[in-house]
Amino acid sequence: MPYIVRGVLALLLGIIVLFWPGLTVEVVAILFAVFILMNGLLLVGLSLVSPTGESFGTAFLILGILLVIGGVFGVINPIMTAITLTILIAILAIISGFSDIWVALTVMGSGGVRLLLGLSGALSVILGAIFFIFPLLGAVILVAVYIGIFAIAIGILSIVQGIMMPKPQAA
Q: How far is Cα 22 from Cα 20, in angstroms, rounded to an integer?
């Protein structure tokens, strides 16, 4: 029974995410911003209790203050946070894609594996470029695909698992 309940909840979450991806992006961005804010406060606290003269204490303080500022900004403006994160993901996809293309052209042997690696690299570059040019659309797509579809898949698998589990034997 718990697997069926978990599955239904995951299925509902996935459907909500797919039908309201913009709202989901905003909620995820706020949660991320709160995480950054809390991390910053933790680092500031660690810097205050670190032994006097320790360089890591100063580094913790500076990084903590920067994270607090970033976290507050993210809570105040979650859409800009989502756009910023999407741009970072886009840059990583572009770098990764060019790296795959380079490996396919220079390092790997011949054959289908080399071609597939080159094609996957090209797709990463194209996706990264689209997300970089249209970051808000990219954020919505990331949330809908990765959270929505994943939650639906987990929901279905959990429901099936709950149905297929053997029932406990009565004593």
A: 6
Which one is predicted more confidently, 96 or 107? 96
Q: What is the pLDDT of residues 27-79, one digit of tens each?
A: 888 988 999 999 999 999 988 887 777 777 888 899 999 999 999 999 999 98
Nearest residue to 24 via CA among 77, 70, 82, 71: 82
Q: Kindly tell me the burial class for residue 170, based on how many C-beta atoms sit within 10 Å of its own C-beta (0-12, 13-18, 19 or more).
A: exposed
Tokens linked to 127 = 């996706």
User: Which residue in the block uniquely carries the two structure tokens 């978990």?
Assistant: 6
Per the listing, tokens 């954020």 go with 139
Phi and psi at residue 34, to the nearest 5°: -65, -40
Q: How far apart are the first and last CA of the chain?
A: 19
